[in-house]
Fold this sequence. Notes:
The structure is a homotrimer of 311-residue chains.
Chain A: H1 18-36, E1 48-53, H2 58-70, E2 74-78, H3 85-88, H4 93-100, E3 106-111, H5 116-123, E4 128-133, H6 139-153, E5 160-164, H7 171-182, E6 186-190, H8 199-207, E7 212-214, H9 218-222, E8 227-230, H10 241-250, H11 255-260, E9 266-268, H12 289-307
Binding site for carbamoyl phosphate (chains A, B, C): 59-60, 110, 138, 141, 271-272
Enzyme class (chains A, B, C): transferase
Binding site for L-aspartate (chains A, B, C): 89, 171, 232
Amino acid sequence: xxxxxxxxxxxxxxxxxxxxxxxxxxxxxxxxxxxxxxxxxxxxxxxxxxxxxxxxxxxxxxxxxxxxxxxxxxxxxxxxxxxxxxxxxxxxxxxxxxxxxxxxxxxxxxxxxxxxxxxxxxxxxxxxxxxxxxxxxxxxxxxxxxxxxxxxxxxxxxxxxxxxxxxxxxxxxxxxxxxxxxxxxxxxxxxxxxxxxxxxxxxxxxxxxxxxxxxxxxxxxxxxxxxxxxxxxxxxxxxxxxxxxxxxxxxxxxxxxxxxxxxxxxxxxxxxxxxxxxxxxxxxxxxxxxxxxxxxxxxxxxxxxxxxxxx
Amino acid sequence: xxxxxxxxxxxxxxxxxxxxxxxxxxxxxxxxxxxxxxxxxxxxxxxxxxxxxxxxxxxxxxxxxxxxxxxxxxxxxxxxxxxxxxxxxxxxxxxxxxxxxxxxxxxxxxxxxxxxxxxxxxxxxxxxxxxxxxxxxxxxxxxxxxxxxxxxxxxxxxxxxxxxxxxxxxxxxxxxxxxxxxxxxxxxxxxxxxxxxxxxxxxxxxxxxxxxxxxxxxxxxxxxxxxxxxxxxxxxxxxxxxxxxxxxxxxxxxxxxxxxxxxxxxxxxxxxxxxxxxxxxxxxxxxxxxxxxxxxxxxxxxxxxxxxxxx
Amino acid sequence: xxxxxxxxxxxxxxxxxxxxxxxxxxxxxxxxxxxxxxxxxxxxxxxxxxxxxxxxxxxxxxxxxxxxxxxxxxxxxxxxxxxxxxxxxxxxxxxxxxxxxxxxxxxxxxxxxxxxxxxxxxxxxxxxxxxxxxxxxxxxxxxxxxxxxxxxxxxxxxxxxxxxxxxxxxxxxxxxxxxxxxxxxxxxxxxxxxxxxxxxxxxxxxxxxxxxxxxxxxxxxxxxxxxxxxxxxxxxxxxxxxxxxxxxxxxxxxxxxxxxxxxxxxxxxxxxxxxxxxxxxxxxxxxxxxxxxxxxxxxxxxxxxxxxxxx
Lengths: 311, 311, 311
């Protein structure tokens, strides 16, 4: 049977088969080629995307909206769904799903609570894409991260990926680790003890045969990494402000860090960055974080087109 | 003379002749047929709708915006007009009308104050549609309600329509009753005494020959109704919280209510609902409220196209 | 060499050569002719504009967005960029530029701080247009003002332009004066002493050979002006509320003012107006302020198309 995502919700990376992931990667690459050659896609002419953002995330919202527009589709935008009248009057997310299926062909939801995307999908007969729900999943970020690694390094099999910074609270690294693990990478987890990757995730990876090294020292980690995936260390996670200052500095990528890195190592970051990657590093050819953000467009184009059967 | 709405403002239902109402109904039905058959409308290619929302109403805003997009038009969206710089600096709605006529071909306004839509229309030489102004009118809701009844029941003449819940404060039921009365329905008004339909409206209907029954008991009302139109009972309208709890329960539609209903009765609601219709009722084939919300799209398409002369 | 704006940022009027200004004027006039004749422009089909507004300015935002839509392009709208997650998390405007170049073909920024537009332009490889940055520049307002004068009076050379109201704080009049000075106008500066044009600007103009008259009396100023450019006098600029009331009245344009004016004088205003132009004046044929606002559309169409090479 041919792989298809037509009519499916994209709620988490676990529900995607390897074939489906490859289909998304190939479709994204195809769209990128068309755009680079100056071509004009009109696959989704006459279709409408609704973006329902219950917490602000300009980057994710714009990335989805530009993806829809570049396919010839149109957008209904709710940048501040939390203060909408329906939400204030006590409408359930399920009922919002019933509403939105009458207005749009596909919906993206961003919500602070885990499970919200699934609730919207339960209400809507049209496909729903999870744009990040609380501490839960952010599957499109995981997919664009995978796309970036494939594009920058040509493969994933056998690569060493160092996840660094706050591995405890970052849903990006949780979703991402689950997906990359299936693609044959080895991990180094580089975090202060207080922000270590949850044991359940680390143990789960090891049990399924994934190589994992715990190494809180960034300099020695980058020496053997093909990919450094940085995340923000947030001040509010710390009780002791001094500890924050100390750790913040030790997890700052500078030109010094780059000098110690394995040849060809790329640096990724879900953005926005604050101080964890110095601006001087932008000039390094392996600094892939802005290219990574731009990769969100073809990957989200692929998802929108595939779930609507317009690829 | 042929009926036309070209260049007209849609401020209230009273100003619409029966011929104009029928034209709107027929145009909406035609657009719905085209969309159902997979056709693509481009009537409003090159035209722009401005949605000016001085109070949030995501459902109404998205419904108008998707209507415009499905006609091939484009949208300028002001989801939070109240905090706009012009509004803060003291610009009158009249001047906003003078501005918006330079930017858009048609405008929709939602505003907490009665008369705002008329003021915008006075300023703008382009057509203005009232998307709800305070305790005043909400004509497009009344029109989509009428469209829903015609679509679900095949006619309006001779139907018994039970308006239930808060009939005192709901502009939806006030606009709606005025329009339905002209279409030959009989009414049952089912509300707690504190939230009864204003006497001026009830008397006005009776004087113009409309049959009206006042019956605060929901169960006996549904037994003879073809249409049950529910509205929300809002906690803040009550001084005594116990009375609120008691009434809230007696005006909750459940499967038990449906069992007592006249055969074929449909249930409508302007949405969002909170507790006044139990989720279990969604499975009832006469549960028309989500279909009603979706009907907002073809009706608003018809209005936009007709006032711009693009039908 | 042919004049071109392809790939350029529009940050201030000083950086535009006279040839570039004329190209913008001619392109705007051409687009206006096409629109007036009912033609449909699709120059920017497939291109996307991002509007990043860190302070509300509905008029400027809608004017740019409708300009883009009328060229067949699409829009990504951030009406409230200040509360966006990236901005809150401490992302620099430079990094926002790096992000936006991946999503859009051209960006407009409005920001309360001088220099923000230049910072965005430094980050983005795609063209950036300054939609007003703090006390700094508002070049597109200056250009649409110039366009209005040319359209209304047929020329600028030799005209007497009276800038009136708050000349101290208005970036509109600062940008505008710089541009008009190059186009051969004479100035009358009509302001209360507390709100006089900064001496640096007045002296600069005089040094470059521009004729400038300081005349705080509005009635005698209009008697010899071809253009009266009014601005708002803001209450919060005054320590003494009585002084505010006195000045507010003396700088109110009424039908009496119009009677004293030079024949054919036009009245302009960046809008929104509050009390500085009485509503009765709207009927005067020289009342050009609403036409001026509408002129923002063809001028911004010209700018968007020119910097993207789609003219």
